[in-house]
Every structure is written in C-alpha cells, then in structure tokens.
Target: ABC transporter permease
Amino acid sequence: MLRYLSGRFTGMVIVMLIVAVLVFFITRLAPGDPAAIMLGDQATVADIAKLRAQYGLDQPLLVQFGFWLKELAQGNLGQSIFLQMPVTEALASRAEPTFFLTIFAVALACLIGIPCGIVSAVWRGRVVDQVFTGIAMLGASIPSFWFGLILMQIFAVKMGWFPVAGYGDPGAPLLDRLHHLLLPAVVLGVLNSALIIRFTRASMLDVLSDDYVRTARAKGLNERRVILRHALRNALIPVVTVIGLTAALMIGGAVVTETVFGLPGVGNLVVSAVQRRDYPVIQGALLAIAVIYVLINLAIDLLYTLIDPRVRY
Model:
C-alpha cells in the first residue's frame, strides 16, 4: 500500500506540474491586458506600463512562470490584481457556498440515481425501466442554466418558497444561508443523477446475471436481500467511480449554476477573474480544482478496498 501511495503521489505531482504549465500559458493567450482593464479607458500608456511593471507583467513569460512556480513551492498562489488580497484568501472566502452546493447536489444525485438505477435494472424492459431510462436521457440533455431559470421562476418568483438569488447576509444563520442553496442543488443534483442512473442500471444488469446471484435466489433468500446485500455491493465499484467523478466535475462545473443563482462561490469568482483578466486568481482557482479532482480520484481508488475485499494494491 505504501508503495502504491508513493507512486500515486509522485504521479499527482507530475500531473500538477503539467496543469500548472497549461493553466499559466493558456491564461496568457487570452486577449486583454489586466492593467488596461483595471485602469479603464482613460488610462495613459505610461500609467498602464507602470502598473504592468508593478505586478511583473512586463517580464518575459518564462520569468513570470518561474516566479509563480517559486511561489507555489512555498504554498502561495499569488496576489490578486483586482482584489488586492492573496489568492488563497480569496478562494477560502468563496469556498463555503461551492462546498455545500456540491455536497447537497451529490447527495441528491445519489438519492435519485442509485434507487432509480436499481429499480430500472430489476424491472428491466418494463414500463418503470423505460420511464427511468427516459428520465436519465432527459436529464443528460437539459441545459443547467435553462433548468435553473425554470425552477427559479416557479419556486422562487411565483411560489416564493426560496430566495431568488444570493447566499444571504454574511451574519445570517447557517441554515438561512443553506436555504439559498436548495434550488441550485436541485438543478445540479437532478441533472447529474442521469449519469448515475445509467451506470447503476448497467452495473446491476451485469451482476444480476452472475452465478452467485442465482445461487442466492436458489437458496431461498429474500429478494430484497439478494438485490441489496449481494448484487448491489458487487455492482458498486463503477457506481462509486462515477459518483466521485461527478462530485469533482460539480466543483469545477458549478460556474453556470452559481452565475444563474448569483451565488458568491468559487465558480462566480473565476468568471469575474476571467472578465477582468485577473491572472493569479484564474491560475490559483484552476490549480486548486485540479488538486481536488486528483485527490477525489485517489479517494475513490482507496474506497475500492472497502467495497470489495478482493481489491488489493
């Protein structure tokens, strides 16, 4: 296990270096000058040049990249050009809405996807299977921004059950702030449950045809126990994989949902940084998302050993 973990962490370091290179240089390829955007249309060439020199933007790209890597090695993601604060603090101040939104959405996606996938597999070819398969295809096809606007119009504007947008006042109780996340969590959870339904159904269909399931039924075991105790546990590995990947993608892909619902999360921060060409924030946020993605993949691999004792590293 130690050998496996050391190899994985070595691979993670290599992946992070590759991500750092891609993020840095692709960010610089985007048109626009952060100094010019920050100073506005009335700024002179001298003012822009002075501000570029202040933030080191006048240095060659390789020099800027080397300085950024040096800062990363010290655990520093840089200083935001527009927010005038460390990128780490900017990300930390926006992390709470994105974190809770992801947790709620993943939980909802699992609560919908796994039971629907099991029922669809057990009742294969019947009406309920066709209904859940159609729901999965529909969920995979609906744009998140459109679904979010529809739910907002119905449940926030007309019925008034939920806030239209925002995350509540900073001093508001946590439950009040979490109330703002229910609608966006439903948007992400329902749409992402489609993939979990499909994977759960396919994995369960493979397992239900195995010999040990037929043997369990022949021994007279209760059908619910056969499905949940024997079949589901052995079908969980691909399901857990897709759940983990879904959670990782939600963290990086909640940009549209956070924008629609006006949530002050990491996704909204990245959108603002892109519009203002705030290079340090863009680089830091994307690198942090990549780190979370890699760590979730590692956690999934380790979880395999708990689900299936036959898995060894």
Remarks:
- The longest helix spans residues 87-122.
